[in-house]
Amino acid sequence: MEQIKSVFLPRALDGNPYQNQLIDNLKKLGVQVEIQKPFSSSTFFFPMIISHWKPDILHLHWLEPSCIAPNWFLSLLKSISFLIQLAILKLIGVKLVWTVHNLKNHDNSNLVLNNICTKTVIKFADAIITHCEAAKEELIKLFYVKNQDKIFVVPHGNYLEWYENKISRDVARKDLDIKTSETVFLFLGLIRPYKGVPELIDRFKCLDSEDIRLVIAGKINSQDADLTDLINRKISEDKRINFIPGYVESEKIQLYMNACDVVVFPYRDILTSGAVMLAMSFGRACIAPRKGCLAEVLDDRGAFLYNLADENGLMQAMNAALHKQPEILAMGQHNQQLAEKYSWKNIAELTLDVYLYCL
């Protein structure tokens, strides 16, 4: 078999090792993988793709960088350019694979154009990858996908071997000035409006216990600057809440994960989440909505799952965690065992199967 050549577009800019893990393991299987160079254009990608060779596969991940801009007119220009380039690549025989990380941009900006691009990519795609059955069903339902045979479920890989995990609970807590006796809830990662952090603070403040702590650590993008003020206002009267704004360096992740008891995902809108797999990889119990891939990856043995439609659901899940404190450690260990199933070697093999289906 000739070596398969694949190009990934766009490059993830948030330090998420998802693409690196997948690329490294595809290369071990003999696939030649190129990725968009740092800071090169996601709008005019055609020259980059054909500059050295014609790839067999163009593997699309997030669509927004290629078709959504701050205003409608620029979004229109980007979308037209994006779809014309895809059409040319299709005409010259490049196969198109799309991994569905989300069904729309998280800012809900220019959704009409976003939907046009998504529908066209679905039509053009030789194969579509979703991370779970729920995401596959949602894609089919929302976009009336006729050819369902080209949709493949390939789970999200774990982070067991990616991040350092040597620091003890006591050392991590001492570093963050957290008492050993406290039950610690953690929100970690990029803070965006759809992730529900202000609501998490409101629900946490309703919990009737002095021996608890909420740690919120993560970066807020410049376009969401008002979120920083809102969070600071909400936490000002509650000494049980630590807000640590700013990008979390990869070596600091073990500090936060090992200091906490439960990782909380108060997302209002979610399809898939690598952050959940990160918490599971560190052996942590989780609180999450029973929605999308979260409800498939997590189970009631390792998580406190709640209904998004229930406005008290998040608070009840946090209360349940407090009442089940002796079981929290075992719940985290259960999650780590579940995460072990999702090795990147397996994920790469399943992705290669998708490539071979296209070819």
Q: TL;DR of this structure?
A:
The chain is of the alpha/beta class.
Could you explain the architecture of this structure?
- There is one protein chain.
- With 359 residues, the protein is an alpha/beta fold.
- The protein has 15 helices and twelve strands.
- It has helices spanning 18-28, 46-50, 64-67, 72-91, 111-124, 133-143, 169-175, 197-205, 225-235, 253-259, 274-281, 294-297, 313-323, 328-339, 344-358; strands at residues 5-9, 32-35, 57-60, 95-99, 127-130, 151-153, 183-188, 212-218, 241-245, 262-264, 285-289, 303-306.
- The strands form two sheets. The chain has a six-stranded parallel beta sheet with strand order 2-1-3-4-5-6, sandwiched between helices. A six-stranded parallel beta sheet has the order 9-8-7-10-11-12, sandwiched between helices.
- Helix 11 (274-281) links the parallel strand 10 (262-264) and strand 11.
- The longest helix is centred in the N-terminal third of the chain and has 20 residues, at 72-91.
- The model has no long low-confidence stretch (mean pLDDT 87).
Secondary structure blueprint with pairings:
Layout: E1 5-9, H1 18-28, E2 32-35, H2 46-50, E3 57-60, H3 64-67, H4 72-91, E4 95-99, H5 111-124, E5 127-130, H6 133-143, E6 151-153, H7 169-175, E7 183-188, H8 197-205, E8 212-218, H9 225-235, E9 241-245, H10 253-259, E10 262-264, H11 274-281, E11 285-289, H12 294-297, E12 303-306, H13 313-323, H14 328-339, H15 344-358
Parallel strand pairs: 1-2, 1-3, 3-4, 4-5, 5-6, 7-8, 7-10, 8-9, 10-11, 11-12
